[in-house]
């Protein structure tokens, strides 16, 4: 696996794991975010658990991304890109400003780049 793909995988792990943990804990920031976007507490916690699992799958395959682990990493990248894309669309639909849209767009771009690097390496 290329060094760039490894760095992106590690960054995605850190970001999505911390976001997922915050969603599971449902702190005040995430409570406000869920309310603003129209999600229930339970849905936000499920999203958080999926983010953590996908983040762990990304980092677990950095060293030996072959065979079944490679497939796992590809699935994790698809999940993260899809979830990020869904959040991006939700933010756009709710007419959230750049403050909310740009960070999500950057995460989606990172997940897509990671996916492309894994598919073509």
List keywords for this structure.
121 residues; mainly alpha
Task: Give structural notes.
The chain is mainly α. The protein has one domain (3-119). It has helices spanning 3-25, 28-37, 41-60, 67-93, 98-119. The termini are close together.
What characteristic shape results from the CA principal axes?
A: globular
What kind of oligomer do you see? single chain
Radius of gyration: 14 Å
Distance between the termini: 7 Å
Strands, total number? 0
Structural class: mainly alpha
Q: What's the SSE pattern?
A: HHHHH
Quick gist of this model?
It contains five helices and no strands.
Give the SSE map.
Layout: H1 3-25, H2 28-37, H3 41-60, H4 67-93, H5 98-119
């Amino acid at each position: 696996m290329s060094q760039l793909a490894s760095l992106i995988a590690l960054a995605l792990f850190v970001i999505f794991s911390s976001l997922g943990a915050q969603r599971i804990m449902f702190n005040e920031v995430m409570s406000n975010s869920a309310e603003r976007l129209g999600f229930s507490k339970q849905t936000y916690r499920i999203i958080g658990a999926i983010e953590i699992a996908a983040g762990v799958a990304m980092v677990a395959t950095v060293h030996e991304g072959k065979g079944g682990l490679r497939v796992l990493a590809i699935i994790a990248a698809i999940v993260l890109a899809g979830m990020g894309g869904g959040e991006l669309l939700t933010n756009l639909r709710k007419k959230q400003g750049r403050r909310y849209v740009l960070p999500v767009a950057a995460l989606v771009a990172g997940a897509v780049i990671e996916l492309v690097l894994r598919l073509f390496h």
